[in-house]
Write a structure and sequence with these properties.
Length: 307
């Protein structure tokens, strides 16, 4: 029953994701104002998040509660189980028990406390439910959130429509940049990081923003000229956007909003977000953390090593 429910939820999420992709594609092709397009994209993304929560996570929690109640009542009814402590057999680790069969036996009423495989049934069972239902449910939901992030449109510095989907299979380091900031020299270290790892699949993507003390006032051509002449930048630069505030771009809303992977506004220029090959957000680094810091390098290399 739980497996069938999971399959139905997965199919529902898949169908809705396909429909959402079609909507985003139509929005991209339509001749709409940037503000309307951003608002519509954010609305569709919010709707998809609600669909994922409703179709996958909520049913998983309900299944866990129902099955847990049945098993716990049967354990207590048969006089077995111990709510305190945990099973110490084999050290401090739980038994490796075929819990799927045990659960089915208890639901059917064909098992008793005498043949229950553990003297501490309830804590061991809780671990089982965590691994069998709750964690897989969140794992199933994660690709849908990643798909949302990849489908959000933005423009290159030259005005061409693009999205993170164009970097599918690569590791992306997103950075909100500025030309007149005390941290602007990070451009040099970002370029060095890109040069060192681009053959392995790293892409640094710059998002110029004038949100912080007006430190990126230039036009697209001025930004491009500055980056190329001053720091010999060759990694992709995108159209200037807002990374916070009422006009925040949907991509940054998805990353830093209340339901985002890393809630909390970007604090200053050169904040960094690492996106894995599968499109999932992996790490966030604050502006003053330089691109050549050990934590950034280790995270990038770990993401590149992942298959």
């Amino acid at each position: 029953m739980a497996l069938e429910a999971g399959n139905r939820a997965a199919r529902a999420v898949s169908n809705r994701a396909i429909n959402r992709a079609a909507v985003v594609a139509e929005l991209t092709k339509a001749d709409l104002s940037p503000d309307f397009r951003a608002m519509a994209g954010a609305s569709v993304m919010a709707a998809t998040v609600m669909i994922v929560i409703t179709a996958v996570i909520v049913p998983a929690i309900l299944i866990t509660i129902i099955v847990s109640a049945i098993v716990i009542l049967r354990v207590r009814g048969h006089g077995g189980g111990d709510e305190k402590g945990s099973c110490q057999q084999g050290g401090n680790r739980f038994h490796d028990i075929e819990w799927d069969e045990v659960i089915l036996e208890f639901i059917r009423g064909s098992s008793t406390s005498q043949n229950f495989p553990c003297d501490h049934a309830i804590p061991c069972y809780a671990r089982c439910m965590l691994h069998r239902i709750v964690i897989p449910a969140f794992a199933l939901a994660a690709p849908a959130f990643a798909a949302d992030l990849a489908a959000i449109p933005f423009k290159t510095l030259e005005g061409k429509e693009t999205s993170l989907k164009d970097y599918s299979g690569k590791v992306v380091l997103m950075v909100n940049t500025a030309s007149k900031c005390g941290l602007t020299p990070q451009y040099e270290k970002l370029q060095a990081l890109y040069d060192r790892h681009k053959e392995r699949g790293l892409v640094v993507v710059g998002f110029p923003s004038n949100d912080f003390a007006g430190q990126e006032p230039g036009s697209a051509s001025e930004i491009e000229a500055f980056c190329k002449t001053k720091y010999a930048v060759t990694f992709p630069l995108m159209e200037k956007i807002h990374v916070k505030g009422p006009e925040q771009h949907p991509l940054y809303a998805a990353l830093t909003g209340p339901q985002g992977a890393f809630p909390g506004e970007v604090k200053w220029n050169f904040g960094k977000f690492l996106i894995g090959r599968d499109g999932k957000p992996l790490a966030r680094f604050e502006p003053k953390t330089p691109p050549d810091s050990p934590e950034v390098i280790q995270a990038v290399e770990k993401a590149l090593d992942a298959k």
